[in-house]
Amino acid sequence: MTEVLPILYSFRRCPYAMRGRMALDVAEIALEHREILLKDKPAEMLHASPKGTVPVVVLPDGTVLEESLDVMAWALDQNDPEHWRVAAHKAETDALIAANDGEFKHHLDRYKYATRYEGAVSHEHRHEASNHLNALEARLSQTPQLFGDKPTLADIAIFPFIRQFANTDRDWFDTQPWPGVQRWLSGHLASERFVRVMKKHALFASAQGRGA
């Protein structure tokens, strides 16, 4: 009998999808990867998760995981060989990720996509977003990763968003007084795991045609 694998719907450049793929990779989860376009979402994905964001994981029993942190948690529940979840740091980890996904992401979107938000001034939101980088720098000036020598859940959940921030104006980012953050980010971007999860996949060919 053919094994039924979890199905991952993903968009390569989405930071939420990146962190989900990183956790699925470290947990060595065998899956069916379905690469999509956010502007042309397949009907199968929208049937599983009508909100239409990635990543989405559909488990063989029909359970749908439609939040990136839920995907990460499920993957690490199956296998956490590198000990990304450290009980002693859970509260701090949750706080760092909440700050990243909340206030920082709010300003990141309005810095990168100012024309999409009425009244947004790009450089003002860049300045506000920089407060988050300052907090990360305070940690990363002391240790290679956010909680010591080795990456944990916090590092993996956050760095894809710092990548997006940095790439909005890389020349500016590289001149900022964040040597710890810059070293940390460069290390994650050069890692074998990140290179592997950023491999390009052919677009999923929907059997039902594309959704709106």
Protein described:
- The chain is α+β, with helices and mostly antiparallel strands and 212 residues long.
- The protein has 2 domains: 7-82, Glutaredoxin (3-Layer(aba) Sandwich), CATH 3.40.30; 87-191, Up-down Bundle (Glutathione S-transferase Yfyf (Class Pi), Chain A, domain 2), CATH 1.20.1050.10.
- Helices cover 52% and strands 6% of the residues.
- The protein has helices spanning 15-26, 43-48, 68-78, 90-112, 122-140, 153-168, 170-174, 179-190, 192-197; strands spanning 7-10, 32-35, 56-58, 64-65.
- It has a 4-stranded mixed beta sheet.
- β1 (7-10), α1 (15-26) and β2 (32-35) form a beta-alpha-beta unit.
- α6 (153-168) packs across α8 (179-190).
- The chain is globular and about 55 Å long.
Quick overview:
The protein is built from 9 helices and 4 strands; from the N terminus they run E-H-E-H-E-E-H-H-H-H-H-H-H. The chain has 212 residues and is of the alpha+beta class. The chain folds into 2 domains: 7-82, Glutaredoxin, CATH 3.40.30.10; 87-191, Glutathione S-transferase Yfyf (Class Pi), Chain A, domain 2, CATH 1.20.1050.
